[in-house]
């Protein structure tokens, strides 16, 4: 029996098996990437077959799930999972870290480029464009689920969420806009005559880190705020600092490249 939209978080229930909106959005994101990657690879002189892209995306799926879940375990709920290790493999219960997902996908891309003998920066420059779109679609899943909402606000576009009191900043929408802007900027820059290998990847890291840092100011912080004396940061902002730094390093390293 097929049941459409049985709950707010579940899109389809098929014979007792639930397909959640969050997972559905990521599935659509990978399908979109499979469509886009063979068409945009020319911007970095790549000529991979559809089978090659299928292999990379399969590794990417593993990277997103494993990295996202392990990132959540290590970055957000280490005490809980240390006491309940079996819960780590229950990915259907949710609990994903975008920072962990980025690390997981990054490892998958490095492995694939090494195996195929492809310039890693050329591959990363191409992959980050559908990657940014995929991140936007993941946040769409969060919006549908009514999770990762913002702090209370009186702005005209504030929204009501079932699990929260009062009107809130729709930080999921902010994140969707952020990621689509990144995808657009990276797409324009990769076609620029001045664009060098690796700089699109560096641009992605810098923009993602900076804009994520800003969005965090409006997001509800269930894990508290860290006081460093001279600045206060959320856990998401702390985890974003290394991304910004890596983007700056890659930009400098690749600045003199062809």
How would you describe what is shown here?
The structure is a single chain. The protein is globular and about 50 Å long. The model has no long low-confidence stretch (mean pLDDT 88). It contains eight helices and seven strands. It has a three-stranded antiparallel beta sheet with strand order 1-2-3. It has a two-stranded antiparallel sheet with strand order 4-5. It has a two-stranded antiparallel sheet with strand order 6-7. The longest helix is centred in the first third of the chain and has 26 residues. It is mainly alpha-helical and 258 residues long. α1 runs antiparallel to α5, α4 runs antiparallel to α5 and α6 runs antiparallel to α7.
Topology readout:
Layout: E1 2-4, E2 10-14, E3 17-20, H1 21-40, H2 50-75, H3 78-83, H4 98-116, H5 120-145, E4 159-160, E5 167-168, H6 171-190, H7 199-216, E6 225-227, E7 232-234, H8 235-254
Antiparallel strand pairs: 1-2, 2-3, 4-5, 6-7
Helix pairs in contact: 1-2, 1-5, 2-4, 4-5, 5-6, 5-7, 6-7, 7-8
Which descriptors would you attach to this protein?
7 strands, 3-stranded antiparallel β-sheet, 8 helices, mainly alpha
Low-confidence stretches: none
What structural class is derived from the secondary structure elements? mainly alpha
User: If you average the pLDDT, what whole number results?
Assistant: 88
H/I helix tally? 8
**How would you describe the shape?**
globular
């Amino acid at each position: 029996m097929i049941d459409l939209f049985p709950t707010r978080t579940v899109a389809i229930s098929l014979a007792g098996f639930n397909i959640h909106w969050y997972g559905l959005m990521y599935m659509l994101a990978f399908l979109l990437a499979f469509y886009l990657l063979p068409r945009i690879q020319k911007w970095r002189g790549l000529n991979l077959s559809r089978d090659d892209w299928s292999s990379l995306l399969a590794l990417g799926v593993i990277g997103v799930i494993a990295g996202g879940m392990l990132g959540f375990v290590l970055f957000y709920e280490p005490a809980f999972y240390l006491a309940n290790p079996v819960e780590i493999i229950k990915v259907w219960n949710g609990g994903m870290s975008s920072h962990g997902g980025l690390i997981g996908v990054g490892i998958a891309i490095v492995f694939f480029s090494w195996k195929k003998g492809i310039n890693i920066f050329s591959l990363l420059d191409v992959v980050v464009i559908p990657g940014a779109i995929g991140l936007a679609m993941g946040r769409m899943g969060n919006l549908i689920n009514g999770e990762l909402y913002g702090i209370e606000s009186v702005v005209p576009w504030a929204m009501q969420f079932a699990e929260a009191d009062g009107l809130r900043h729709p930080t999921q929408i902010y994140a969707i806009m952020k990621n689509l802007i990144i995808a657009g900027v990276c797409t324009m820059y990769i076609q620029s005559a001045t664009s060098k290998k690796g700089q699109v990847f560096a641009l992605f890291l810098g923009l993602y880190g900076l804009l994520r840092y800003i969005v965090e100011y409006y997001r509800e912080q269930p894990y508290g705020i860290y006081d460093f004396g001279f600045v206060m940061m959320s856990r998401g902002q702390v985890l974003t600092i290394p991304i910004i730094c890596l983007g700056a390093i890659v930009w400098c390293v690749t600045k003199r490249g062809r």
